Amino acid sequence: MKKNLIVIPPKSAIDASEKKPQSCRILLIPDTASELLGYYDADCVVSYGLSEKSTISPSSISDYETVISLQRELPTLDGEIIERQEISLRRPEGLSEESFLAVAGMFMIAGIPPEKLAEFF
Q1: For residue 99, how many other CB atoms are within 10 A of its CB?
Q2: Number of domains in the chain
């Protein structure tokens, strides 16, 4: 059965005993975890992380705020497309930059418009 969304958290590992790739429409994966791609059969792969090549990356980081940059169009589960843009958000204290990008990406893919993200942070 194909899942709609699989989110791989930062610093994840795959159990080597897993025999069959998981299928999904959208895979949200850290840019540092390319070795995990073989374990997933995804219609669309969205990367997040500190690399400027990631789909979702920071363009500016301060102690309390992160400007998230969407480097490419971002698909949503409803079939909509979020255009390339920058989104300024307050990052919760204690949440790593990569985890923050993953959560923001998950919200947008789930259909939360970028202009509404500040309500969650």
Answers
A1: 17
A2: 1
